[in-house]
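Aim 2, interim progress. The first record below pairs a target sequence with its structure tokens.
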Amino acid sequence: MIKLLKNERLSKVLDMINQRGSVTVHDLVDSLKVSSMTIRRDLDELADNDKIRRVHGGAQRLKEISTDELSYLQKRNVNVALKKEIAKKVASMIEPGETVFIGPGSTNEFIVNYLTLDHLRVVTNSIPIFQAFLATNKDYDLTLIGGTYRSRSGALVGALTNEFLARLNMSKAFVSVNGIMNDKLMNANPEEGQTQTAALDHSKQRFIVADHSKLNAPDFYDFYSLNQIDGLITDSKANKLVLDQYATFTTIY
């Protein structure tokens, strides 16, 4: 009977997490009327069995790795207001006269709209971002790095791209990801990940740009570690429990 009650409780805990996306220990104690010690043991057991992801103060629903990477054109229409919120933060972090790398990503395409600087050098391997800067009247020095065109993301990648990046000295890099899990930064394509690595390695300050849907969302290729990053720039809808977890690796903006 005790085993049955425990199983029933575990099932309710799992249901709450899956329905809400994330819950705190306090939420579960309040709802199920059991001790916090019992809830913590339940969460540890569910995490050990790969049913949930344990975070500081609670737990979060697991996300599956997507096998269908959206194109950059499709991504442009997702979470637009939140992407603009992030892009505005990024623009505020760029100083006059800096050399900045802006990597591929629909969020990064909005950065140019919020820049008010007189002089800036922008390096990118993204054709959409290069075009976004060309479409303005801003008198910035633009460098589009050549390489093999990847139509899914509109990025130029590969050995030629990486070799060119290795010769540059950049003030800051702003790189997007498809997913972050614990300290792992991930995307859908190894070649693109290797180019992002090269850009981060040759920048004095390194920043990751990711809306809240990318947090605790695994993807195919692990290309960098979050604890080597100066800051994670995300939006106001990011879950506090999740942000507390990532704050152990880097600064959250």
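The second target in this work package is listed in the same format:
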Amino acid sequence: MQTLITRLRPLARWMPERLKQPVQGLVRDWQLRRAVERISALPPGQLPTNQLLEELRAGWGNTGYAARPEYLRELMERAVSTPGPILECGSGVSTLLLGLLAGRRGVETWTLEHLPQWHARVSGALRRNRIPHVHDCLAPLQDYGTGYSWYTPPVERMPPAFQLVICDGPPGETPGGRYGLWPVLGARLAPGAVILLDDADRPGEEEVLRRWSTEARMRVDMRRVAGGAYAIITHG
């Protein structure tokens, strides 16, 4: 298979459009599968190298919307050490990493995704690559009637106390942005739970942080990186 992919890759640019996309998809699927296998083979607790992380991102595609490497590094460090279940708001390559690094220790990840096509893509990648202990939930956005919309999580099936939250959704144009995490699922965050909030320097996320801080005891640590910032929020 590797020999076939190696031969197809340089030829793809000369192919008719009707053939190019299927071939490019085949190459990405192979890259993704190879990166997943290599990450799965790492000793427990060892993080992927930057090169291996880039291979995973390339195999996943959609790099223009993928989280920044610094944020993914923070996510991975938390995933290999968190003692309990993880909540993820929004899905993507981060979902695969959480399953590969936390799932292999038996730690569950519950991912909320509102877009049916994107949910199907992520669920398919999890299934094909046998990535364990990830509950990828289709959770449409709902108007909660108090100035914000958020996911409709399957609360009755979810763990009572999440230890880690990866907050990368819903999209910024959603009424209230990411605020709904606290009023909808705040009661299911364990004392000392950590929330990773990406894009924390955007006006919408700054407003979310302000509202959360007035409604709950939270300690916020801003991390500035090239092109933006993310926040590490400790609850309680």
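The chain has eight helices and nine strands. This observation will shape the mutagenesis plan for the next reporting period.
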